[in-house]
Specification:
Blueprint (H helix, E strand, L loop, with lengths): L29 E6 L2 E5 L4 E4 L3 E8 L6 H13 L10 E8 L4 E6 L8 E5 L2 E5 L2 H6 L9 H10 L13 E2 L4 E6 L2 E6 L4 E2 L7 H18 L8 E4 L4 H13 L6 E6 L8 H11 L2 E6 L2 H14 L9 H13 L4 E3 L4 H5 L3 H13 L3 H13 L6 H13 L5 H4 L4 H4 L1 H4 L2 H4 L6 H12 L1 E2 L2 H29 L2 E3 L5 H7 L8 E2 L2 E2 L1 H6 L6 H4 L10 H6 L3 H10 L2 H5 L5 H12 L6 H18 L5
Helix pairs in contact: 4-19, 5-6, 7-8, 7-26, 8-18, 10-12, 11-12, 17-18
Length: 602
């Protein structure tokens, strides 16, 4: 939108090479000027409605594939100039305009599954679903934001509203933007709350949760004949979804897709096979190895418009690719289960840290003495003891943050003096402190779960699954992130999520006839990639990482002390500590620079 009523020529947006690429992407871009001062560029399946003065565009994926509530939201805006999330569930993102009032609105769903970027450039307000589209206008220079990169170095992603490029912002999950000439306002339209007000016996609450889960998952089962299936890791979330879907599929045999690894301790195909057999699924699987990871990384750099350091994007991509090869257009994912049912291993660990934190001074003093005695010892066991004592001495959310604090913990050793001039050691911690304080929650566990929904889910897991799947040519639905289900689980007491040291207490009771006991009681592995193994042994993956991370080009950016980066890599190789996550995010940061900053998308 242009405050002056005229939009500058933006012909570079017609160039397909400046748009994100994915399997099956349309081969043309559509451009229109639906109202004075408004110019719209779209590619793909984007809804558009309106008249010469008011209208909107949007992306929406609702439970079951029904499209009426999304269309109602557009019609309401055109008729009343009012937007609300009334009746909206699932995934959505909208941009709406009222030319007469010189007003633009943009909104994203509760977990930002369709991202929206925005920037002011002179008289223009730029709004886009992808960072590279704003860069393609030529109105915003591709200058890296060092504060945003600092957050990336701590979290492995850039959290909203921050953006890797100066002058551009991301709309946070569950928020709306309203733009008028000379001013923009961002406000919240939905939030997770934790009143924890449900009472009754454990059996009654388990029965209630079971029914809510079945209703949510069944509601996300596609109603059309389009080919669909499920991610199936063999864990409790994906397995419970597969089980519920298989019960409601009638004569349709649900397809499942699973990824395994040759490395011991990473492969969970035995559990996904068990689930596929018990639920009568049409199971598909493949193994991902070192060569596959090397082949996927450049594709993923192109799929993510900001630096993204979560290595599990690689198996996610190959899982979605396997589905696409079998004709599947939509995958149902289990993301969000850990964060609403209490399955994150960090919640259980935090209970142990909290016990130490609240223990008598004599106990804490003994721990501090032991850690002090081990100060000069650099072995895995000694480092684990020192790490426990350090983290156990912190209050939350500082303690929770210490699990994601690479650049903070190694601030002076890692970062160059010029980088440190632009950031403060606690800048990323302050991001989490602010979110932790915002939580409308009754206990520490719920505040941590709220923090995870806002960051781990909205800024990390959803971004990973949506972007990797789109690259493969598939769409994704998230029934465990259904707004009504999330609101319901917020009414369950924290003790239902983690009781003592038992995670998912009520979920396990609720799924007794949904999941086999072997899966309900299995140890959580996650969907990790064996990067740690590949970096310890000689091979093509380690060679590639060394070549990129320690390259003159990477050193020339002036961000890091090269000697410390070399120290981390050598320390990892000899097993003193697992630095694979940190090394991988350094790799992806440098590759992102080469793709997006060194001229290609600027």
């Amino acid at each position: 939108m242009s405050a002056a009523g005229e939009v500058p020529p933006l012909d570079r947006l017609r160039d397909l090479g400046r748009w994100p690429a994915w399997r099956g992407a349309p081969a043309e871009v559509h451009c229109s000027t639906p109202a004075p001062g408004i110019a719209v560029w779209t590619r793909g399946d984007v809804q558009q409605a309106g008249d010469s003065h008011a209208g909107g565009i949007g992306l929406a994926m609702e439970p079951g594939g029904a499209g009426e509530p999304a269309a109602v939201a557009l019609r309401r805006w055109i008729a009343e100039r009012r937007w609300s999330n009334e009746g909206l569930r699932g995934r959505y993102g909208y941009v709406l305009w009222d030319a007469r009032a010189r007003r633009v609105m943009a909104c994203v769903d509760p977990f930002r599954t369709y991202p929206i970027y925005h920037a002011a450039a002179g008289d223009c307000l730029l709004i886009a679903s992808d960072l590279r589209l704003i860069l393609a206008t030529g109105l915003v220079p591709a200058r890296v934001s060092l504060p945003a990169l600092y957050h990336y170095l701590n979290f492995s992603y850039v959290p909203a509203p921050h953006c890797a490029i100066e002058g551009i912002a991301k709309l946070p999950a569950g928020h709306c933007l309203e733009g008028r000439p000379g001013a923009t306002e961002v406000r919240k339209h939905w939030d997770a709350v934790y009143p924890a007000d449900l009472r009754g016996s454990d059996d009654e609450r388990a029965s209630g949760l079971r029914q809510r889960m079945i209703d949510a998952v069944s509601g996300y089962r596609p109603l059309s004949d389009a080919a669909w299936g499920t991610f199936l890791s063999g864990g409790t979330d994906s397995s419970s979804i597969a089980s519920i879907l298989s019960r409601t599929a009638g004569s349709h045999k649900v397809s499942s897709f699973s990824i395994g690894f040759a490395e011991e301790g990473y492969d969970e195909l035995a559990y996904s096979r068990l689930a596929a057999q018990r639920f009568g699924l049409d199971g598909h699987e493949r193994s991902v190895g070192e060569a596959d990871a090397l082949a996927a990384i450049p594709r993923l750099v192109d799929a993510f418009d900001e630096p993204f350091g979560n290595s599990s994007a690689i198996p996610t991509y190959y899982c979605a690719d396997l589905a696409a090869q079998n004709g599947v257009e939509l995958l149902v994912a289990g993301d969000g289960g850990d964060e609403i049912y209490g399955g994150n291993e960090r919640y259980r660990k935090d209970r142990i840290f909290e016990w130490f934190h609240r223990s008598p001074a004599l106990v804490r003093g003994a721990g501090a003495m032991l850690a002090g005695a081990l100060k000069g010892v650099d072995t895995r066991l000694a480092n684990r003891v020192k790490n426990f004592v350090y983290r156990g001495s912190l209050p939350n959310p500082d303690r929770f943050y210490s699990d994601d604090s690479f650049a903070s913990e190694q601030f002076e050793e890692l970062l160059s003096a010029s980088f440190r001039d632009h950031v403060g050691r606690d800048d990323s911690l302050d991001v989490q402190r602010a979110i932790y304080r915002m939580a409308q929650a009754d206990c520490n566990l719920h505040r941590l779960m709220y923090l995870d929904l806002k960051m781990t889910i909205a800024d990390n897991d959803v971004v990973k699954v949506v972007r990797a799947s789109r690259l493969a040519g598939t769409q994704v639905a998230f029934p465990y992130l259904d707004r009504e289900l999330v609101e319901y689980t917020g009414r369950l007491p924290g003790n239902d999520k983690v009781r003592g040291l038992e995670k998912r207490y009520l979920f396990k009771r609720a799924t007794e006839d949904i999941l086999p006991v072997e899966i309900r009681k299995k140890k959580k592995q996650g969907f990790g990639l064996p990067v740690s193994v590949w970096l310890r042994r000689p091979g093509p993956f380690r060679d590639m990482v060394n070549e990129v991370v320690l390259s003159p080009k990477a050193a020339g950016r002036g961000y890091f002390n090269r000697e410390h980066v070399e120290h981390l890599m050598k320390r990892h190789e000899r097993g003193a500590w697992d630095h694979s996550a940190e090394i991988y995010l350094l790799l992806m940061l440098e590759l992102w620079h080469r793709q997006y900053v060194d001229g290609q998308h600027g």
